Amino acid sequence: LATQIADVSPTLPLFLVLVFSLLSVRQCTMRTVLCHRCESNRAHVKRPKTGEAICKECFFIAFEGEVHQTIVDSNMFSAGEKVALGASGGKDSTVLAHVMKVLNQRYNYGLELVLVSIDEGIRGYRDDSLATVARNQEQYQLPLSVFSYESLYGWTMDRIVEQTGKKHNCSYCGVFRRQALDKGAMALKADKIATGHNANDIAETVLINVLRGDIGRLQRCTNIITGKDGMLPRVKPLKYSYEKEIVMYVINTRHFLCIIMYLLHRYAHFKKLDYFSTECTYSPDAFRGYARMFLKLLEDNKPSSVVNIIKSGEDMQARSGVRVPRSQLCEKCGYMASSNLCKACQLLAKLNQGLPRVSLGKHKPHTT
């Protein structure tokens, strides 16, 4: 049940998710299956990543331990660094904030953690997610800063979609969001940005870049640390964490009772029992959705497919003679670019000129 919940969780009311989770725990308890790790407690969950039936305590230890090992193996952080955690209010960024705070204290990383959120200006979506981020800020006692598209670019995504339609809106948002997160982190004088990209996200990106023939992005999309030579390095502590296990971590978190109390509080005020979903109202037509569906089919048949795709992406290299875009600084804003102007400045110029629909040309694969 727990793994099935993860597949439908973006649209399932949180109350039902919690009920199904409790039923799953009860079901394991009734069967008296012992944890494969400690062999003393009763198993509560079956890990999608390994197939192990383990208790909740061992699941926490395993999940957090694997993230810690990922951080150590990649020399991700240095003591004294200020790390900006990308916070959207979704499951990935929420788990990222929680785990980073836990590990920072447990292993004495010596990091200064801050939350950075981006307000794209999407009515009925980002408003709710920012409220979730505000609650996370209170729970984890981490400083929170919010930066908006409107203040940075003079546009909101709602206005952009009015001009462009929904065909290319994700391309605009992806470009602007990445740069906005960098600008926000730099404004806070952060040394690095940590994002909640999980194993499924990275495997999807590998598939997308293969289908698009994008050699440049394919070579760097699996890197656990990017931008070392740029303005601000980005790191992915959850690179090898499966999306289903992140959902299970959220469901079985130590703050489970706090979530129930929050639900009861909302119910007492006759509000609809739901929760914030990371599925943007403008994203159903995004190309990534097709890669996500394909990856889910592969994962259902063979769970190791997710990591295998990542490993394949890590081992891919462009053959000699293939032209790969080189990074340089944008002449207008100073941001990293592959031409004289960065993509954000190109898109903004077209928007301000009233030509948004022709600002995104078809991608041309790199050839010899």
Quick overview of this protein structure:
With 368 residues, the chain is an alpha/beta fold. The protein is 50% helix and 9% strand.
Describe this structure in words.
The protein has 15 helices and 10 strands. It has helices at 2-8, 14-31, 56-73, 91-106, 126-140, 149-153, 157-164, 169-187, 199-212, 215-220, 243-251, 256-268, 288-301, 305-315, 343-352, and strands at 45-46, 53-54, 82-86, 112-119, 144-148, 192-194, 225-226, 234-235, 328-329, 336-337. The strands form 3 sheets. The chain has a 6-stranded mixed β-sheet with strand order 5-4-3-6-8-7, with helices on both faces. Strands 1-2 form a two-stranded antiparallel ribbon. Strands 9-10 form a two-stranded antiparallel sheet. Strand 7 and strand 8 (234-235) form a beta hairpin. It is globular, with a radius of gyration of 21 Å.
Characteristics:
two-stranded antiparallel sheet; globular; alpha/beta
